[in-house]
Each structure stands twice: as C-alpha cells, then as structure tokens.
Specification:
This protein has 101 residues and is an all-alpha fold. It is built from 2 helices and no strands.
Length: 101
C-alpha cells in the first residue's frame, strides 16, 4: 500500500513537471516565432534595398551614357563655348539647356 501511494505521488510529480514544461515550451515557441517574424521582415527589407540599389545603379549608368552622348554631340557640332556666357555654359553642364540645337 505504501508502495502504491509512493508510486502515485511520483507519477503526480512527473505529470506536474510535464505541465510546467509545456508552458515553458509554449513560451520558447513564442519567442522563436517572434524572432522568425522579425528576421523575415529584415530579409524583406534587405531585398527591397537590393532592388533599390540595382535601380540606382541603372540610373547612374544611364546618366553617364547620356552625358557621354551630349559631350560627343558638342564636340561634333564644334560648339564655340568661348562665345557663350558663363551662365549659358553652366546651364549646359547642369543639363538645363540644350548643348546643340
């Protein structure tokens, strides 16, 4: 009888500790899930930044190509830059005025 009561008490302690670990497991799962969600958000932001960087690289390349084309047109037209005012030259450099008409 005493042995049966001892076994019953031991089983109760084991089942109670299992209940406690279930709460711990739930908390640990929640922590892990929250961290996964934050990491997913960071990865999405990184992807967006990479895409934005690619677009900026393309814009920079297009700007250089356009400037090279304008410079070639100025050279081909043999523009008399010394006959222009400083304001006219500055406007051409700032891409605010046509270099060649």
């Amino acid at each position: 009888m005493k042995m049966g009561i001892g076994l019953l008490l031991a089983a109760s302690v084991v089942s109670l500790s299992a209940c406690n670990s279930k709460g711990t497991d739930k908390l640990a799962d929640r922590v892990e899930n929250a961290a996964d969600n934050r990491a997913d958000t960071m990865e999405s932001q990184a992807d967006a930044l990479r895409n934005e960087a690619k677009m900026l690289d393309k814009r920079a390349e297009n700007t250089r190509d356009y400037a090279e084309d304008r410079a070639d047109a100025i050279k081909a037209a043999d523009v008399n830059a010394s006959a222009m005012s400083q304001e006219q030259r500055d406007a051409i450099v700032a891409n605010q005025a046509a270099a060649v008409r």
